[in-house]
Design brief:
This protein is an alpha+beta fold and about 525 residues long. The protein is built from 16 helices and 17 strands.
């Protein structure tokens, strides 16, 4: 550990001690109100490498004269100082990374022109350095166990914790107000035995690097720093803290800084709640836009189709080409578009209910639902299309946890398989079987058609016409959005394949996997 670290300049290099005249901590050392000096050991001998202005004035000698004399010679008149120096020297030789401090009370003169009563504070900075401070009187400055209630009453009344730290590795704590225990769970009495507790063991690991850098930058620039971070209390609770601090003059030969940390956990919780509400409002806004855009787009398509039919009717009438077969044909097409409009309205309403309610599920045989759906569609389109719809099941019963919305899945998929088909015979095959899985078995339902099929590019997006997406995505309608949402509600999965592998134009195969109900 070099002098550059002692002076607070962690970016310094060995040998740069004479280049740090502008270092704020070096200035603080030189102009401190108490006499102090810095010693360094090479493992065998102690050498004085720096003294401040106050020490030179008290001793009546220049820095050069003092440094040349050597440490042991300077203090040879006092046995207690000799003993303390030797103890610190031995500690330094152990190359430890913590600190050891001796307090020696001097009543008699032990240096020329220094006849007052002093407390000598020797601090060994493990590795190479020893700091000596001459404090008038017998008070032990910086000892966290010595507190005058009248001095700290205001600090102890603060809602957070006021503290003083050494500007050294892990920022050991010199003093903390009583709010320390309320904030961290650690009583102030533990600080004497655990001086590095405040930063090293408290700051959340994910914030430690950032906080250390921000505080160091503020102190190096001699500014009041401000930083927010998380701590982990003694009970393991994570709390948010807002901290302010600033550099102060050294008090024991080491750079120090004072700070105030406030618990802002409640504020952060309020911010999180506000952010969640904002997300909820945005979701509701997107949902409203989703329904509006899709309803507007699909309803416009329906109305445009109906308008085209009416225009054709007028054209036939004007040309005297209208007959009963033509009238019946146009009426049928109008009925189909009216049915599409009614389905659109029902689907919008069901989607809105799904977004709002958590519907209850129960075990249900979906084969009955499939049969009802097929019968309804065959009856509805028998006079319009030539249909062949069949149900092929390997199971006598297919129990699935669902509700009445299961019919909307099958109704929409079979309906799409018919209306998006231009063949003379519109064929739909519904297959049901059991599919075994590693953890759970499923009921597999396939709805296979001989229509125009679905391109590979659209297979991945066919179900994704959801809230917040562009209303310009055409050709999907609300039906598949409704199907996807209901499938999610039933904890099932759905995807689309080619009816004939590698030939999308030969028709589509919609596959749904429902968890098999026990």
């Amino acid at each position: 550990m070099e002098c550059s670290f002692f002076y607070g300049n962690e970016l310094g290099k060995p040998g740069d001690e004479n280049k740090m005249d502008d270092n704020p901590f070096k200035k603080a050392f030189n102009h401190a109100p108490h006499a102090r000096l810095l010693l360094k050991t090479d493992g065998k001998n102690l050498s004085i490498i720096d003294v401040n202005v106050k020490f030179q004035e008290d001793l009546g000698q220049s820095k050069k004269e003092i440094i040349d004399r050597g440490a042991m010679y300077l203090f040879k008149r006092d046995a207690r100082m000799q003993h303390a120096l030797k103890s610190c020297h031995e500690f330094a030789r152990m190359k430890k990374t913590n600190y050891k401090t001796h307090h020696v009370h001097i009543k008699d003169a032990f240096l020329p022109r220094m006849d007052d009563k002093y407390t000598i504070e020797l601090t060994c900075i493990g590795g190479s350095l020893i700091s000596i401070v001459l404090l008038p009187g017998t008070s032990l400055a910086g000892n966290v166990t010595k507190r005058e209630p009248s001095h700290f009453k205001l600090l102890d009344a603060l809602p957070g914790v006021a503290f003083r730290c050494k500007l050294a590795q892990d920022w050991p704590l010199i003093f903390a107000s009583k709010g320390h225990e309320k904030l961290t769970g650690y009583p102030v009495s533990m600080l004497h035995d655990n001086p590095d507790l405040f930063f090293k063991n408290l700051v959340h690991p994910d914030d430690e690097k950032r906080v250390y850098q921000e505080i160091k930058n503020g102190l190096q620039q001699e500014k009041i720093y401000s930083v927010e971070y998380r701590i982990v209390s003694r009970s393991g609770e994570v709390r948010w803290v807002s901290e302010w601090g600033t550099l102060v003059l050294p008090e024991n030969g080491l750079g120090i800084f004072d700070g105030l940390a406030l618990d802002i956990s409640i504020m952060h919780e309020s911010i999180r709640e506000l952010e969640q509400r904002e997300r909820d409002y945005q979701e509701a806004f997107n949902q409203a836009n989703f329904y509006r855009d899709l309803f507007t787009h699909d309803m416009n398509n329906i109305l445009q189709a109906m308008l085209s039919i009416l225009n054709l009717c007028r054209l036939k009438i004007d040309k005297n080409e209208m007959n009963m077969d033509t009238v019946e044909n146009y009426c049928t097409k109008l009925e189909m578009n009216m049915d599409r409009a009614a389905r659109l309205i029902r689907n919008v309403r069901k989607l809105s209910l799904l977004e709002r309610d958590d519907l209850e599920l129960s075990s249900r045989d979906i084969l009955s639902d499939l049969n009802r759906c097929i019968e309804y569609i065959q009856e509805s389109f028998k006079s319009i299309f030539n249909l062949e719809i069949s149900l092929v099941s390997e199971l006598e019963k297919a129990p699935v946890r669902c509700n009445d919305l299961i019919e909307d899945i099958f109704d929409n998929l079979i309906y799409n398989a018919i209306v998006h088909n231009r063949n003379d015979i519109r064929e739909v095959i519904v297959k049901v079987c059991k599919q075994e899985g590693n953890e759970k078995d499923h009921v597999r339902v396939e709805i296979i058609d001989n229509g125009k099929g679905i391109s590979d590019e659209r297979k991945d997006i066919i179900f994704n016409r959801r809230k917040g997406e562009s209303s310009q995505t055409r050709g999907k309608g609300l039906g598949l959005s409704l199907v996807q949402r209901i499938v999610e509600l039933f904890n099932a999965k759905i995807w689309v394949e080619d009816r004939v592998d590698g030939n999308p134009s030969a028709g589509a195969r919609f596959v749904i996997l429902f968890p098999l109900a026990g």
